[in-house]
Amino acid sequence: MKKSLFGDRIPCSCSYCMHAAEQEGECVCTKKQSIRPDGNCSHFHYNPLKRVPRPAPKLPHYTPDDFSL
Questions:
Q1: Which residue from 2, 3, 20, 48 could staple onto 14, CB 3.0 to 4.6 Å apart?
Q2: Mean pLDDT per 10-residue interval, the chain, length 69 residues
Q3: Model-level pTM greater than 0.70?
Q4: Burial 21-36 (b: 16+ CB within 10 A, else e)
C-alpha cells in the first residue's frame, strides 16, 4: 500500500481541496458537495499546492553580550 506523502490524517477543508474553486471570495466545491457535520467529505482530495503555510516565527533579538564569554 502506498503511503501518503503528507500523512493520512489531513482534516477536510474546502480551501485546500482539489475539487474546490474560489468564487467571489468564497471556496465553492465543483462537485456540489459540502463538509458533513462529522468533518468528512466523500470527494475531498488534498492538494498541497493550495495550502498556505504558516508564517515563520519571529527570531529573538540578540545583543553582543549574549555571545561574550
A1: 20
A2: 66 80 78 70 81 88 90
A3: no
A4: eeeeeeeebeeeeeee
